[in-house]
Amino acid sequence: MELEEDEYVEYVPVAKRRALEAKKTLLRHQRKGKPIRDTGSSCALGDETLDDDDDSPPSSSANKPPAAESKPPPSLLVQATQLKRKQPAITRAEQLVQQEIEIIQDLLSSGRKPLMSVSELAKGIAYTEPLPTGWKPPLRYRRMPSEDRDAIRKQWHIVVDGEEIPPPVSNFRDMKFPDPILEVLKVKGISRPTPIQLQGLPVVLSGRDMIGISSTGSGKTLVFVLPLIMIALQEEWMMPVGPGEGPLGLIVCPTRELARQTYDVVQQFLAPMAENVGYPELRCLLGIGGIDNRLELASVVKNKGVHIVVATPGRLKDMLAKKKMRLDICRFLTLDEADKLVDGDFEDVTRDIFDHLKGQRQTLLFSATMPTKVHEFARRALVKPVTVSVGRAGAANLDVIQEVEYVKQEAKIVYLLECLQKTPPPVVVFCENNAAVCKVHEYLLVKGVDAVSFYGKEMEQTDRDRAVALFKAGKKDVLVATDGASKGLDFPNIQHVINYDMPAEIENYVHRIGRTGRCGKTGLATTFINSQQSETTLLDLKHLLQEARQRIPPVLAELSDPVELGVVGTAANADGCAYCGGLGHRISSCPKLEQQRSQQLASLRSRDYFGSGGYRGEM
Ligand code: ADP
Ligand code: MG
Fold first, then answer.
1. What pLDDT does residue 577 have?
2. One GO CC term of this entry (predicted)?
3. Would you call 127 exposed, middle or buried from its count of C-beta atoms within 10 A (0-12, 13-18, 19+)?
4. Ligand 1 atom at minimum distance from 221 CA
């Protein structure tokens, strides 16, 4: 195609362009009054090229030598300093907050894929509207003015975030649960919704994605179990699940015991429903490691179809990989203790599970601890999410009286016996590792205490189940356990939690002491500390105790907070460290982040080494 005449731009040869550039530079320097050495190229300039330069100032002034008395302009460095002085002063706190935002942004954008299936990412599928459910709150709630809704939320310390948030509903009957469900709630002694249920249930029943944050023992389980049963019921009435189909809803829990406990809760509601005339049979399957569920898989999934699956990530991944079950029609996904599932060791498996989801689903995340970084990351996978929080994420349950005592390492085991006298059983004693659990358990048995032990994967599943069942049934007085029993487990009426070892991460402390003081009851927690704990851990503990208005022991009171903690307790640090939730330090000095980074670095190094074709033995 021929160019129009006025669009034509004359070609300027490279040599000529260079000459023009050199002349421009020369003129600039002359204007600034700087001497410039003649270069070969500038010498080559002809007068006619100088006149062609549109940008150059009028030649008369340009060619004048600089006035001797004119002051040279300030250097760039001086200009920058002057500019900085003119800017309003930024406080140290603001600087820290800015730094933290940058660290979080960096963590969030460091090549981490959002929690979506590979096909969704590849096809660029992004859902924008929540899935409809057909549930609506009664008219009087829908007509409730927003000030009244806010007043109810304020009364129960509920903080909500999101668009078009459904109103809080103050009783189960108004939530339109069918009679068999209301009957089970009555039998369980559950008459009124807890704050997280009051706001969380209408949100989930409306089909909205939700992040639910509320302290340990505040009744989060029902917020995802009851709406899931409602969805299964509705779907079953409309189009029954057939052989090989399902599940419609999936609940993922980080530990086998928590999955079993949640499965039991689901079954408590499903069993009476199946006996009621007019209600269909809804089927639930438990998928956890350490048990052989081939029979259930055959009888439930293959022969009849399944509505609800409660599983741990590992077993679920296995069942999906072996095509024992598919998530084609799964439209409801809950991650309980979600911060553990979307971050850290479980992240890859959770991603795998997301890969098997075929369509849009309602996604729910629940936990008592949810650092900002995990929260932000998880939110990206949700559709128009609503965050419902009751209290600060990571705060200790206020119904637990927290006592912290300085006990020397060698005196701990003897003092434990004395400590057990503080309350009647049942008591849970938490230790850092399996070896400590065995040592404490043996000691207690020798001293005649009716104790049972529970520790990680090295323990046979049948022994784990036996230990938990005996303790739950009240047949054992003391459970000595590792952190494996710290999350989500709902042992009835625990009187006292003893932290024989203070955990390094404050989140684990919050979960551990949360085994007592559940659902309105008061509990006691005693924690042994000594020189084995890092100062950061102790500072986190100190601030957590301060937040819960507990007595601060002298050893913690004496700890001096670093200078940068000048902003602790202000709005800037109200949520704690963005990486681990600890109140006593900032993300810039987070030990968990440092540990994770050094682990990543180590794994990268080893990968480089083996990738380069070296032999381990020969180095
Ligand atoms: P979380 O998951 O928040 O730690 P759970 O859901 O395990 O707490 O509930 C803790 C205990 O409280 C359970 O024994 C449960 O039956 C009971 N519970 C749940 N909701 C209520 C309620 N509205 N009123 C009384 N007790 C309840
Ligand atoms: Mg729970």
1. 83
2. cytoplasm
3. middle
4. 6
